[in-house]
């Protein structure tokens, strides 16, 4: 499980995928999200700009990212 510590109140979903090394670029993150391959808190998310806050969990291709303060 990858942990991302927030510097601000939130991080956007596309940025989180890049920060965790699960997407090489914003374009890669965009396509993965648009194709319904990314889950946030157990639900498929199609919003690249979805704001992730403390406690959110992202799942992509068998990898998990936890957002913490």
UniProtKB/TrEMBL annotation:
GO terms for molecular function: RNA binding. CDD domains: S4. Pfam families: S4_2. InterPro entries: S4_RNA-bd_sf. Keywords: RNA-binding. The keyword Transmembrane does not apply. This is RNA-binding S4 domain-containing protein. The lineage of its organism: Bacteria, Bacillati, Bacillota, Clostridia, Eubacteriales.
């Amino acid at each position: 499980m990858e942990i991302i510590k927030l510097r601000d109140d939130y991080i956007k979903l596309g940025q989180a995928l890049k920060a965790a090394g699960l997407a090489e670029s914003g374009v890669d993150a965009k396509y993965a999200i648009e194709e319904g391959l990314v889950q946030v808190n157990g639900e498929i998310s199609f919003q690249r700009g979805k704001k992730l806050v403390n406690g959110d969990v992202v799942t992509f291709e068998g990898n998990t990212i936890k957002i913490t303060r």
